[in-house]
UniProtKB/TrEMBL annotation:
This is VWFA domain-containing protein. It comes from the Eukaryota. The lineage of its organism: Eukaryota, Fungi, Fungi incertae sedis, Mucoromycota, Mucoromycotina. SUPFAM superfamilies: vWA-like. InterPro entries: vWFA_dom_sf.
Length: 395
């Protein structure tokens, strides 16, 4: 065995062994470095554990209790991508088990189901060995991110039509969409707005994904933007984002908060359009963006209210930015008239095959979420058909 050559028969090499592969440290005896180092070998001392008794690794199926002997210590994690490790719990009182990089597992899992176990961040797992983490910085950064995946249909493997006609069995492997937050993050409030004004959605269980909310894919929507265009929206602390197709057009008339809101509306509609396009490519039954029934409306309020557009077909709505640009900031803030107008539009264009969704942007003044007007909007339709969304600009 290779590792024999590192044995300190002459007392010149460190005698510490990697607990997973049993390779000896290759540094001199009594080395000043805090961390031991070695080239690592097969994980003969590693036994697999997993929450599900069976799990897959690189196309092979393993059971808990199987040995890791056929894998190399310094290669194994790379193929896992984002992952967490499992180790025996070290807390005296398991009910109070906490710590940086640790998440206590409440279920009993194999092997030794009666011994409590923890999920560990990759970094901590290696720190406990006393050996230097054998993976590079890029890998380590990836391993420290949350491993939750978006369950949206567009990320699932689908056999292609083309493949079956040629007798092949090609499959499309769409990109997975991982949570953007660090591993073991505290869950965000389910369904809240994405952090830092980002795109995407927060799942019911509190993970943040940059892709489209699966709850919104495959349904048709009437999206109603309810926008504050009062005088304070001339403030220039927010502006349209740079380097977008509409930046120049918007900045020519609205280089201010209202322009930033219009820009966000434009990006929201773009995202929705591209979702509808990918839904069409993905081969769903009603698979053309042109037969989507999505429509979009916009209500602008100050102390008065105006409808910029109502129930416009979302796909191919090319003049939206020009329509919005006709309206400059003015007047005071009367939240109620905006909500009243949105409610009227909602009733007037209600289609039972569609979800009505009001996106209400509070920029300058922030009325209470529980205001009576907002609550009336909530109760307008049965809760299943109506999704009021509080949509807040971040600065
Ligand atoms: Zn050493
Ligand atoms: Zn090792
Ligand atoms: Zn624990
Ligand atoms: Zn690892
Ligand atoms: Zn997704
Ligand atoms: Zn997460």
């Amino acid at each position: 065995m290779d590792s024999i050559i590192y044995k300190s028969s002459n007392g010149s090499f460190c005698e510490t062994k990697c607990p997973y592969c049993e390779y000896y440290c290759t540094l001199p005896y009594g080395h000043p470095q805090m961390e031991h180092e070695t080239s690592h070998g097969n994980m003969i001392q590693t036994v697999f554990s997993a929450v599900d008794d069976e799990f897959e690794y690189n196309g092979f199926t393993f059971n808990t209790g199987d040995r890791g002997s056929c894998f190399l210590c310094n290669m194994f994690c790379k193929d896992l991508g984002r992952h967490k490790h499992i180790d025996y719990c070290q807390s005296v009182d398991h009910t109070k088990c906490t710590g940086e990089g640790i998440q206590h597992i409440s279920e009993k899992i194999n092997p030794d189901p009666d011994l409590p176990k923890d999920f560990l961040k990759h970094g901590l797992y290696w720190k406990r060995t006393g050996f230097k983490d054998p993976y590079n910085k890029e890998d380590q950064d990836l391993f420290s991110k949350c491993d939750a995946l978006c369950c949206g249909d567009e990320h699932q493997i689908k056999a292609t039509q083309a493949a079956s006609s040629t007798g092949g069995s090609n499959t499309i492997t769409p990109a997975k969409s991982y949570c953007e937050l660090p591993l073991f993050h505290a869950p965000l409030p389910g369904g809240s707005v994405p952090p830092n004004g980002g795109v995407g959605y927060v799942s019911v269980d509190g993970h943040y994904f940059k892709c489209q909310n699966p709850a919104m894919v495959g349904s048709d929507f009437h999206i109603i933007f309810v926008i504050d265009r009062s005088g304070s929206m001339t403030t220039t602390d927010c502006k349209p984002l740079p380097n977008t197709p509409v930046e120049r057009q918007l900045r020519s008339t609205h280089n201010n908060r209202l322009g930033a809101v219009y820009d966000a509306v434009y990006r929201f509609v773009e995202t929705r359009q591209s979702t509808l396009r990918s839904r069409a490519v993905g081969g769903a039954a009603s698979a053309s963006p042109s037969n989507s029934n999505d429509t979009v409306s916009m209500v602008l309020f100050d102390d008065k209210v105006v409808t910029a557009f109502a129930n416009k077909t979302l796909v191919g709505f090319s003049g939206m930015v020009s329509e919005m640009q006709k309206h400059l900031p003015r007047g005071g803030t009367s939240f109620g008239v905006g909500i009243k107008q949105a409610t009227d539009i909602c009733v007037q264009h209600h289609d039972p095959k569609r979800y009505d969704m009001a996106l209400t942007e509070f920029s300058s003044s922030v009325p209470a979420y529980e205001s009576t007007e907002f609550m009336s909007l909530h109760s307008l339709q049965s809760t299943r058909d109506y999704i009021p969304v509080r949509w807040r600009m971040h600065r």
